[in-house]
């Protein structure tokens, strides 16, 4: 581990960099978690907006568990160096998730 502070990405606004530099380690970890979850959310929203093929949704509907709506998509989450599939969908302003299974079932 380097004793030098990290160099912020050039794309970050200076106000954001200054705020982060003034933050506690605990706050920075919370920001990192939030930023990762927000990035996943925005990527998922982009995918959902791009899915306009209703035939594909109807074709997949038989694969859905009873408590998962047909508009749900499958996402992959990394948890403790393991990858898992989750059903995810929007209910109002909230994102709902349901565990589906490991990405590599043999592991």
Automatic annotation (TrEMBL):
**Locations of Basic and acidic residues compositional bias?**
39-50
**DUF6788 domain residues:** 62-104
In Pfam terms, one family for this protein is DUF6788
Q: Give coiled-coil spans as residue ranges.
A: none
Residue ranges of the region described as Disordered: 39-70
Q: Where is the composition biased (Acidic residues)?
A: 51-66
Q: This chain belongs to which protein, by name?
A: DUF6788 domain-containing protein
């Amino acid at each position: 581990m380097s004793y030098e502070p990290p160099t912020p990405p050039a794309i970050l606004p200076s106000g954001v960099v200054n705020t982060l530099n003034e933050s506690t380690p605990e706050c920075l970890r919370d920001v990192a978690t939030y930023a990762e979850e927000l990035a996943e959310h925005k990527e998922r929203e982009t995918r959902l907006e791009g899915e306009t093929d209703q035939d594909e949704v109807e074709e997949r509907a038989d694969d859905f568990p009873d408590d998962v709506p047909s508009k749900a998509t499958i996402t992959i989450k990394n948890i403790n160096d393991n990858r898992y599939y989750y059903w995810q969908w929007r209910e109002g302003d909230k994102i709902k998730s349901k565990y589906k299974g490991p990405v590599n079932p043999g592991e």
